[in-house]
């Protein structure tokens, strides 16, 4: 969820599975295309806002891990519709 873990009004079923070998890229993608569009909270959930909480988190993880992709221009995406 993108909000309070108790407030069910913020619960959403995205019907989306993210999988990959780069956890930094997965968090970036999930924040940008799943969480931020729902919350519209640029201060916390916009990974392209360098001052946001998620951008700071991604940079810390990327720097401490020494690898990981931040930015959708470096992510190779493959989609499949299971319906």
Low-confidence stretches: none
Summarize the helix and strand pattern as letters: HHH
The general outline is: globular
Radius of gyration: 13 Å
Structural class: mainly alpha
Overall mean confidence score, pLDDT: 88
Task: Report how far the terminal alpha carbons are from each other.
Answer: 24 Å
Biggest sheet layout = none
State the share of residues found in helices, binned by percent.
Answer: 40-55%
Count of helical segments? Answer: 3
Commentary on this structure:
The protein contains 3 helices and no strands. The protein has helices at residues 23-39, 42-45, 53-65. The longest helix is centred in the middle third of the chain and has 17 residues, at 23-39. The mean pLDDT is 88.
What would you say about this model in short?
Helix content is 41%, strand content 0%. The protein is mainly α and 83 residues long. The radius of gyration is 13 Å and the shape is globular.
Question: Which labels suit this protein?
Answer:
mainly alpha, 3 helices, globular
Which helices and strands appear, and what pairs or packs with what?
Blueprint: H1 23-39, H2 42-45, H3 53-65
């Amino acid at each position: 969820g993108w909000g309070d873990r108790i407030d069910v009004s913020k619960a959403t079923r995205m019907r989306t599975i993210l999988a990959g070998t780069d956890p930094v890229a997965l968090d970036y993608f999930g924040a940008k295309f799943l969480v931020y569009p729902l919350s519209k909270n640029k201060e916390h959930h916009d990974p392209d806002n360098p001052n946001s909480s998620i951008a700071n988190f991604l940079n810390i993880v990327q720097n401490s891990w020494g690898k990981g992709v931040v930015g959708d221009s470096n992510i190779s995406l493959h989609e499949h519709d299971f319906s």
